[in-house]
Amino acid sequence: MHRFWEFALARRLTISTTLVALGLTGAGLAQSKSVELAVGDLDRDGFEDVLVADRGLTRNGGCGEVHAIDGRSGKRLWLSTGVAESRRVGLAVAVLAKGSGAPWVAIGVEDLERGELVIDVLRGASGERICSHRLRKPMRDGVETRCSFAALDDLDGDGIPELAVGRPGYWRGTRDRGAVSIVSLRDGCEIERLEGGAHDEFLGADVASGEFDEHPGRELVARVEVGHAATLVWLSVPGLRELSRLAPARDGECTVTAIAKFGDSDGDGIDEVLVGLRSPRSGATQPHGEVRLYSPRAPLAMRSLAVDGVHETEGPKVAALFAGRGAPELVAVGTPWEDWSAGFWRLFDDDGRAVASHREEGLNDYYAVEVAGARAPRGETARLAVLAQKVGSRDARHALHVVVQCWGGERWGSLLWIYELEPEPPSPPPDGEPSK
Q1: Mean pLDDT, the chain, as a whole number?
Q2: What sign has the CA pseudo-torsion 255, 270, 49, 87?
Q3: Quick check: bond before 428 cis, omega within 30?
Q4: pTM summary value
Q5: Among 321, 387, 334, which residue's Cα sits nearest to residue 50?
Q6: Measured distance CA(213)–CA(220) in Å, rounded
Q7: Which residues is 261 bridged to in the sheet?
Q8: For residue 269, how many C-alpha atoms fall within 13 Å in the half-sphere facing its CB?
């Protein structure tokens, strides 16, 4: 097993790079993640493309946008938008591999009129909508405003991969439960559903797929919100049932805020899970978080890393770069600074050393950072870091930035491209009123 992260980060990292930092938010964003990232070779040109779903976008009547960005050039492949007062897109996004066929993309949509969750299925290369599937309304009132996606294998033999849908707002009877559903994308049927078991247990706040047991095929790991804390649960697929779980955090302990598949670092044939955790503010000189590596076979963290400066309500976002069985990993960590004054990302190597860091501050009021890892083009050994930042100001306007940078190989630290969506210009004042 590699030596990894056996230290605490005692001071702020100051390594500078040419990478432009990114960020996101507005008031209340800590409770509602606004930007979602996914990667996959949508046009089958050998370069991983990037999907950015922004459900909180103020453009287009506030109904969200999903951008597909070409991994070779950084140009937009296609754009999917919502409809004012009808459909809000970008709740979640996932790339679905179809064997030798062109990938599909699944997008989570709020039906604002009927209060239901809809899954739009699009062609990856063109963004053309193939079909839409409506999930049964989970609540007596209101709209299901949160969900998470994870791509699975083809479980029913129809040639189309199934989709795992985390639904933390699922309600049945008189209890908040949350649920994880396995949905067929051919006809929209819910093949299986597992509901949370405890009162006020919100299962499915995040889901990720990986090989988490000794059987072939992908299983699931899900984040479960319990009161003001959160923990992890591993689920079998098919036959949706709980395999194992971490004990929920007690008062004064760290709580899970983000999960990502890491890969098999110890060679036991089972993928580990990279976890971002937020520690409580009480008793600490400043809020901080942790990044830990967990295996479904053990309740204790295999490795851990302390991260300083984390906002008290927003834990670090995490991603593994160039994840692969037995391959060394780079780990990206993104977070807003403790007072929302800056966006901050860091990159760690397999020995826990910081190889890059960037902090951007003083330009806007709020920041947060999403991170993802993409495979380099065929024949290259580099890892690619994908960072998305939405920079918001108090007038609710913001800019969305996506940056791809190369780490490893001969192009270490080189900036590949930047995709930037500028803030929407302010509306002109009505006739007779002076501009401010």
Answers
A1: 76
A2: negative
A3: no
A4: 0.84
A5: 387
A6: 10
A7: 273
A8: 5
